[in-house]
């Protein structure tokens, strides 16, 4: 390598180092609880249901003044979903007819508390049994997320269940009283996420998480 090439390479390395230093100076750790850019003035409940309430919230922003937003507020705890894995590596997915979207979906067993003192783990056990027809020896929570932070306080927690045993299912609702359950290998479920067959958010997140886990472990 001649002197000119060495000089150019050295200059490029120094510039890269300088850019990295500048980025380090401007980088700010994300703080989700820092001061809000708006002020809440009042809040009025306008609707109450079994699963959620709706509030009309009056707010003020420095740049536009007063404005209002509707906020959906969960009132029965987190939504709970179960990513169950059979001994041969398949996921029970439930066929559900969803009225708001006028279509069928493939989803993980999931639901809400039916009593105020029902724990998330108890909900997970109940929904796995009632919707998928399984009991499990082990439940491990691996993710909790906000469903739609733009207008809702709803969170979903997902458990990974193993050591499955088949049990009798019960009726789960008027849309699909006893739904069909499909046992889908993880790789196939992941492909169904990619091609748009599985569109339910909690199922997409959980299946991708399991697929990454299996890649890291060298299983697939």
Automatic annotation (TrEMBL):
The keyword Cell membrane does not apply. PANTHER family: NUDIX HYDROLASE DOMAIN-CONTAINING PROTEIN (PTHR11839:SF18), UDP/ADP-SUGAR PYROPHOSPHATASE (PTHR11839). Keywords: Hydrolase. GO terms for molecular function: hydrolase activity. The lineage of its organism: Bacteria, Bacillati, Actinomycetota, Actinomycetes, Bifidobacteriales. It comes from Pseudoscardovia radai. One of its GO terms (biological process) is nucleoside phosphate metabolic process. Residues 75-206 form the Nudix hydrolase domain. Its cofactor is Mg(2+). It comes from the Bacteria. This is ADP-ribose pyrophosphatase.
